[in-house]
Amino acid sequence: KAGVTQTPRYLIKTRGQQVTLSCSPISGHRSVSWYQQTPGQGLQFLFEYFSETQRNKGNFPGRFSGRQFSNSRSEMNVSTLELGDSALYLCASSRSTYEQYFGPGTRLTVT
Amino acid sequence: AQSVAQPEDQVNVAEGNPLTVKCTYSVSGNPYLFWYVQYPNRGLQFLLKYITGDNLVKGSYGFEAEFNKSQTSFHLKKPSALVSDSALYFCAVRDANTGNQFYFGTGTSLTVIP
Questions:
Q1: Is A43 close to B107, i.e. CB distance below 8 A?
Q2: Closest residue in A to B93 (Cα–Cα)
Q3: What is the pLDDT of residues A25-56, one digit of tens each?
């Protein structure tokens, strides 16, 4: 069974730009969560989608948004990028309350 | 309130010695508990979980964890450490009180010394 895939793997953007990250969950998994990982803050929860509905949301500004499509694929968008948005963005999929399976992440660098 | 705590940022252990990575949680009710490992520039890999049943859970790569309800702990253990076990370890809990959201600890960096 294919794992969670994330595209692109690496991204360089400049301040003020916007970016869209994509995540394809494991087949059959309807829940997709997004996390931001930085050396100083650890793993920070962004949001979770289940059956195209946002189920949970972390404490991030409105510049961070997401959506989920009918095939469970998910996208995350960050508008008006700031230097502090540089991080590894991880996507994870799961079936209901079971364990999450993570993708390899997208490394975003904002210059 | 923090749901998961990993009190040690760094753990060093000699190769062949037993290792323990500590985790405590603070959710109410019956917790779903997990351990993940992260190698450099990689995503997190699932190691093991406790949902219900036997308090000693066995997982991948020879790791195990013991659920202790009275101490609200879920420590990760391995009888004999390998150099290849060196990585970042995360404890996580699913909290049914917040829509089954996952909460991760801050991570513990494990270094196994040859």
A1: yes
A2: A99
A3: 999 999 999 999 998 778 899 999 999 999 88
Predicted confidence (pLDDT) per residue in B39-90, tens digit: 987 889 999 999 988 999 999 999 999 999 999 999 999 999 999 999 999 9
Counting other chains too, the contacts that A80-84 makes at CB distance below 8 Å and 24 or more residues apart are A80/A16, A80/A18, A81/A13, A81/A14, A81/A15, A81/A16, A81/A17, A81/A18, A81/A19, A81/A110, A82/A15, A82/A110, A83/A15, A83/A110, A83/A111, A84/A110
| String of DSSP letters for B10-77 | EEEEETTS-EEE--EE--SSS-EEEEEEE-TTS-EEEEEEE-SS-SEEE-GGG-EEEEETTTTEEEEE
* 3-class state of residue A74 by DSSP: strand
B34 part of contact set with chain A, CB < 8 Å: yes
Neighbours of B12 (CB within 10 A): 12
Best residue of A35, A43, A45 to probe chain B, by most B CBs closer than 10 Å: A43
